[in-house]
Design brief:
It is built from three helices and five strands, in the order βββαββαα. The protein is α+β, with helices and mostly antiparallel strands. It has two domains: 32 residues; 81 residues, K homology (KH) domain (GMP Synthetase, Chain A, domain 3). The protein has a three-stranded antiparallel beta sheet, with no helix packed on it. A two-stranded antiparallel ribbon has the order 4-5. β2 and β3 form a beta hairpin. α1 crosses α2. The radius of gyration is 19 Å and the shape is elongated. The protein starts with a strand and ends in a 17-residue tail after the last helix.
């Protein structure tokens, strides 16, 4: 998979892949989430895809289900040191499926990449001038 990252103006930085564009921006005049907020949102939304799929496969209603994501910073590094995902369900949700919902959310690909992070290789390349 390849993404093209460009700089459309101001503090905006956008990622383009396939037919999609993910827009990011920085305060104070932000018109989109920051890259880091988008990154954090990918954790909860990824877990949500697995919770949604679990419910859909079993014909369970998803109305009233939500995931609350809480980030806890490490006071020494300032980095996120812990992330809590709380799957909230309505009282009518079958209790027997609660542990399975947790197992489904744990399948999240974003979470798995945290557990075994990729290596990074950052380089530069001078592009050929555009020809008229």
């Amino acid at each position: 998979m390849e993404m093209i990252i460009d700089f459309p103006g101001g503090a905006r930085v956008d990622a383009h892949f396939g037919p999609f564009t993910v827009k990011t921006d920085q305060p104070p005049a932000a018109t989109a989430p920051t890259p880091f907020a988008t990154f954090l949102a990918s954790i909860g939304t990824c877990a949500g895809i697995y919770v949604l799929g679990f419910c859909q496969q079993r014909g369970l209603p998803t109305e009233g289900i939500r995931i609350v994501q809480r980030m806890h910073s490490n006071m020494f590094t300032g980095l996120v040191g812990k992330i809590d995902l709380e799957i909230q369900v309505p009282p009518t949700f079958p209790e027997k499926y609660l542990p399975a919902l947790v197992r489904a959310a744990e399948l999240c690909a974003v979470k798995k990449h945290f557990e075994q992070p990729p290596q990074f290789d950052i380089t530069t390349q001078v592009m050929e001038p555009a020809r008229a």
